[in-house]
Amino acid sequence: MTAPVRIPFPVVDEVSRHCLQEQEPETVHIEVHLPGPVDQTRLRKAFTEALHRHPRILMREARGPWYRRRYEWELTPEPDVEVVTFTPPGPRALQDARTRALTESPPLSMSPPIRLEVVGSVAGSRAAGAAPDPPRAAPRQGGRAPQPAQDTHTGTAQGTVLFLTINHTALDGPACLRILATAAELYGGRDNAPAAPPTRTPQALQDPPDTPTTWSPPARVAPGTPDPSPGNGMLVTELPLPHRPKGSPYTVNDQLMVTTALTITHWNREHGARPRPLRITMPVDDRPRDTTMPIGNGTRLVEVPFASDELDHPDMSALLRRTAERTRALKSLHRPQLGHGAALLTTPWAPVAARAALTRALRRAAAPWTSTTLLSNIGRIPYPLDFGEETGRAHAVWFSAPARMPRGLTVTTASTAGRLHLALRWSRALLSHGDGAHLRDLFEHYLHTTEVTP
User: How far apart are CA 83 and CA 80, in angstroms?
Assistant: First the structure.
């Protein structure tokens, strides 16, 4: 019998593995809304075949002695568990599925570390499936029962929603979206090849002269009304894509970056926090989107700084231009995914148990220097996600990233069918559902203010 193939944990996987916490699972949630029903047998078969087309996802954490120097992934020929489950429709089916995506992480000990939950014949989004957003909620007072992850979309329109829950120690959202695109092609028989990336006007790459320093601790998101229950809360909503004048030197990603910075600045000012510089972590993904895309955690993280004075009554055109210069310069840098320090920390100079304790201690010590928040802009979904004539194409796709303290808040965006799909996710130790609704309102307001004319 051939021994299973083993792969040492890459840097990102190992650091995440060292710092796992039961109370705040490291899950990535992907939510895909389809206009029509799906055939259960066909979908299960297509998704299982997609896993075999990308065998790097069929893996589990290999067992090993306490003194081992590395964690290793063990590739498996078949899934250890049933990956696809089906949930009947109901008035709380969407909310409950979102809550499970935040609280029930697929175990690393079972292959693959991803689950697909299908909620059939459910309410979708406006005009193609989603009802309007709910009334703006006031912050909840402590002591009440925890809110569901989100209660935006209710109604009677028919459709199907796919919920992918991913253990972020093993995989990231773009890699699993690639798996789903393969499954869509196998299910519907239609081409789901990625669209060509948008063309950009070449710009000179240089370090902007006015980049704020990153040596001082950045601002934190000011506490709102903490929720008594542990874990993450989430709110998803749909917004118009912001207008951008033709030939603008900035991108929609730059508009979203500025919107996030202004939203947090406004929130902190409302809550009496002293003005401080902000730093926003931005994942950068250079992988191809076709079937050769490496499966795993493939993004690298850069931090975009903002000085406190440039966010106070800003000149929007100038702020967008400076942000574009900073993001272009940061994207052009070649550096390890989590920086040189993490690469050194994961060198196997000692057993993993010892290095795990050191990593957790250093993470606690570095907490004041952790960035203010994370903005993960997936951008335009590159795949049609076309499941054939009866089921149809995805008309809304949401992602959300973990929101552990000390950041406590993450902002994730994607665009589908000409609309912006925004997910706010927060640590309940920091914010409540009502706080999330207010942050959503602020984000919508400041997104509109970035629609400047040349």
Answer: 9
- Alpha carbon distance 141, 406 (integer Å): 22
- Express each pLDDT in 285-308 by its tens digit: 999 999 999 999 999 999 999 999
**Per-domain boundaries in the chain:** 7-194+206-449
Provide the whole-model pTM: 0.89
For residue 207, what is the DSSP state?
-
Q: Which of 45, 40, 74 is nearest to 60 (CA)?
A: 74
Using left for φ > 0, alpha for ψ between -120 and 50, and beta otherwise, residue 388 falls in: left
Q: Which residues pair with 303 in a beta bridge?
A: 281
User: From CA 206, how far away is CA 189, in angstroms rounded?
Assistant: 46
How does pLDDT run across 86-124, given as a tens digit for each residue? 998 888 999 999 999 999 999 999 999 999 999 985 333
**326-362 as b/e: b if 16+ CB within 10 A:** bbbbbeeeeeebbeeebeebbeeeeebeebbeebeee
Q: Tell the CATH superfamily of the 7-194+206-449 domain.
A: Nonribosomal peptide synthetase, condensation domain (3.30.559.30)
How many residues does the structure list for the chain? 454
Query: Confidence class of residue 273 from pLDDT cuts 50, 70 and 90?
Result: very high
